[in-house]
Amino acid sequence: MTNQHLRVAAIDLGTNSFHMVIVEESSEKGIVEIDRVKDMICIGRGSLSTKMLEEEAMQAGIAALKNFLVLASQLGVAQENIIAFATSAIRESRNQDEFLRRVREETGLQVKVISGREEAEFIYYGVRNAVTMGKDSDLIFDIGGGSVEFVIVNRKGVQLLESRKIGVARMLERFVTSDPIMPNEIKLLEQFFAAEMVTAVEKASKLKVSRAIASSGTAQNIARMIRSMKGLETDVSLNNSVFSYRDFRALYKAVLPLGASDRKKMTGLDEKRVDLIVPGLILFDMIFRLFGFSEITISDSALREGMVLHFLKTRFDPALKGFEHTQDIRKESVRELAFRCGWNRDHAEQVARLGSQLFDCLRDLHQLGEPAKELLEFAALLHNIGCFISISSHHKHSQYLILNGDLRGFSPEEIAIIGNVARYHRKSPPSEKNPSYAALDQKGRRTVDVLSGILRLANGLERGHRQNIVSITSDMSAEVIVLRIQAHFEPDIEIWAADQSKALLEKVLGRKIIIEPC
What we know:
- Strands 8-7-6-9-11-10 form a six-stranded mixed β-sheet, with helices on both faces.
- The protein is 48% helix and 17% strand.
- The protein has helices at residues 47-50, 55-74, 88-92, 96-107, 116-128, 168-175, 183-196, 198-206, 217-229, 245-255, 260-263, 277-291, 303-315, 329-340, 345-361, 363-366, 370-382, 394-403, 412-423, 435-438, 442-460, 492-501, 503-509, and strands at 6-13, 18-26, 30-39, 82-86, 111-113, 138-143, 148-154, 157-164, 211-215, 242-244, 295-298, 469-476, 480-487, 512-517.
- With 518 residues, it is of the alpha/beta class.
- It folds into three domains: 6-114 and 305-315, Nucleotidyltransferase, domain 5; 131-298, Exopolyphosphatase. Domain 2 (Nucleotidyltransferase, domain 5), CATH 3.30.420.150; 329-517, Orthogonal Bundle (Hypothetical protein af1432), CATH 1.10.3210.10.
């Protein structure tokens, strides 16, 4: 790309909300979010049945777009790099031309109305850049105000792109007349949802879909409300988080009997979704039941992020990394965070190599599998990024940056483990006095204990920052582990530092460790 740092703004004119995300793309740091803003215009209010956008809603929409454009300009986005797409409510309205003309005249913004199929495709682009696609078939669904998009994808690519007119605002307007909702209205909604989802359900059954990934504000609201009911923090990144059907049903049973005034009091629920959440919960319940899912994964990326990726690829760089289906978004995301923090790449990659060798040498003792080895690699690559803030206590700063670095493709639990392993690569050993370590389950704490012990030793073996160690082999007895080091040059400094760093691993594995040159 000719531009080293390009800023793009993507605006989504949805049925419930207008959203804008601003990102910066560069060759090393990838795509970094600069800002995002949302305004719940509810432009589809009343129009889903009349097919006419109301004057008040159009004025509110134009006012919101003016504010978005001021923000984009202040953050350095050129006019030609602002893209805007309109979806269900505007797509179906008979006076869309009038609204789009007024938007163009009053803001200069050229809004493109996209089809339901295009919307589903953009959602897919966005989700796959935030959640690692599985080896089997995945269902992606995005619940909007006017429509719901369904995407089925497997190793061969996209198998279904479908948009159905069952969005929560449309369903609220069409079926819900009472508050709390009446049982007969719930039954009508369930029957309507079932009829509209027949094609997707049949395709999912045929392709043996094994996982569901949900994007959209409704999905995020439900996930936050479930966390609140379980006594967990709600103001956290939900990307790659999972909730079970059992936990969902507990929320469903708690919310549906309530009136609007009681729903407003619930933590995690956006006050402008107080009514929309009712058809949203019923739709989620039907998705769980009809597709046979036991849990649902959340993606915090969808249409807007997909718009950005498509724009960057088609306008500037057909080979843009992170766009193709085969990308390793986890590794890319880790490296992008490392570059943003000015990492010492050669040192970090050597520590990761040595850590992987030690993991393999000690596999019979620690009994951890390949997923843990991958988390060790990522923790090693990021263990020193805290130096970006300060050399002093950089291990603590590394953990903070990992936890708040918007890593893509990881569950919150995996990010917590990576952060803890980096946190404990030096100084004090893991302790339940530390809330972030104590919050892990027993398996998670055991993983952190082993991986941080290995990372300490690997870091010691790279003490001179000279990439001196070539390989590590091991011999084991009931009481002793002998690690033999092959090096380019005399490894005195590395063995000395490793001897100082081995205590935690010795304690975790219950063996004395001896380190000697080959």
